[in-house]
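Methods: holo model generation. Sequences were used as deposited, without trimming of termini or removal of tags, and paired with ligand SMILES retrieved from the corresponding compound records. Each pair was processed once, and we did not select among multiple samples. The sequence and S-adenosylmethionine SMILES for this entry were:
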Amino acid sequence: MRRPPKNGNGKEYELVYPAKETGKKIVASIEPAQLEKIKSFGNTLSGSNLLVRGENLSALMTLIKMKEKGLLKNADGTHGIRVIYIDPPFATNLAFKGRKNQKAYEDKIVGAEFVEFLRKRLVLLKELLTDDGSIFVHLDWKKAHYVKVIMDEVFGEENFLNDIVWSYGGRGAKAKAGQFSRNHDIILWYQKKTHLFNQIFTQKRIKKGASGFREDSEGRWFKTSPRGDYTDSSIAALKKEGRIYLTKNGSIRIKYFLKEDGDCLIEDKLIGDVWDDIPDAMHISEDEKTGYPTQKPEALLVRIIKAASNKGDIILDAFAGAGTTLVAAEKLGRAWIGIDSGGLSVHTIETRLLGLNDTKDPENPKKRYLKPLRPFSVFESVEGCCEKDSGIKVRSRYLIDEKTNDCVIKIEGFKSAGASGHEALSSVMVDFNFDGDVFNLHKFYSAKELRETGYQIRFPLSMVKGEVMVIYSDIHGNERWYLGEIV
Ligand SMILES: C[S@@+](CC[C@H](N)C(=O)[O-])C[C@H]1O[C@@H](n2cnc3c(N)ncnc32)[C@H](O)[C@@H]1O
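and the model returned the structure below.
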């Protein structure tokens, strides 16, 4: 075979734009972020789930160092991340806001700068994968084609697995005059060297007697498909199992028996690369909605995680947003790492994880998810990604109720940047024995609970073992930490 001609970089073809750095230079030039553990939810040990607030480039470099030290270990003993899902900004040139008009994040990097922004992260993400790990990159029509070329360069064309079309339906008002409505996203799937794949089926219900479905003499319902490339010996084996159907003109078809449910048949259908059975986040249940913009449906992440990982594997989302990946990973028994630079994102994720119980169970759609939340830690980049003076002012009274021997915190006034009054208060978290360093959650009070109790928090005095740290969070995700003087 004639060898294809190559350019000066030894490549047959590549995407060219100004300020494109070499992969080696990217890895050599990025300093790892210094991450400081600020909160722990449950009894966190090394190896527990991680949520990082910070710029993801330097945080990814820190994770690479952790991988090198053997600190990112899957249940089967392999080192690194098994599945990465990222849903980065899409170069929309927009500023995204939460349901209550809070600032969420800006998507202002466009053009070649956007491609290079993503490429740098992809170079590091590849380093983090296990050899049989894989990455899903969620994009839309604006940049998917450029990023496909970039991913071919970073991962190798031979490691491309699928471009999944997530067709979320014609419900979005995206129809533009003079062109077809845009109602799908693209998810590019690449492996590092090999990959795990668990086939996923969906179930379709069909009325008994529908065309193409037959009942045999033993009362079993079946449908048939052409012989395809089955060999004669395979056909003989299938015949012994009663799985051969002869048409009137004598051609061989293969029988597939179907499950029954009353007057319906249940057909298991293998999922292909067009996913049109998962509606967008506007059409998810109320208890799944977080109010964070660009939230993706949990069902999408459940499918991705189930397909490409096993229980105990580590799943990473470096653009975590509302934490959909982390929630799906948690419910499916995978370990997880989430990174996001936004305060609203991290606050949304914490609140969402703490309210996970009694939401939808992805393993059993008719049941609720009732497992305790596994421990996780929150880290912050020391480099100052995060605003320290939150502008929150709280007027609380800390009392002891002599009759019940309860500690009582009465939140009488609350003010935060741009909003004041109790409506601006999003949650309160309490550590009954603050160690002077890391906040350890003992009690969480959601906005709903606070409203219902008239903004009064009560807990038995016996629970207080040392200094009490109280974290007040506003609807923007800003926090104010108070060392409460109760005893
Ligand atoms: C499209 S949203 C992700 C939504 C998420 N998939 C979900 O289901 O909620 C993108 C997220 O990336 C975060 N982000 C953007 N640039 C970042 C960066 N350089 N480092 C860390 N996070 C970043 C934004 O704050 C935003 O939350």
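The radius of gyration is 27 Å.
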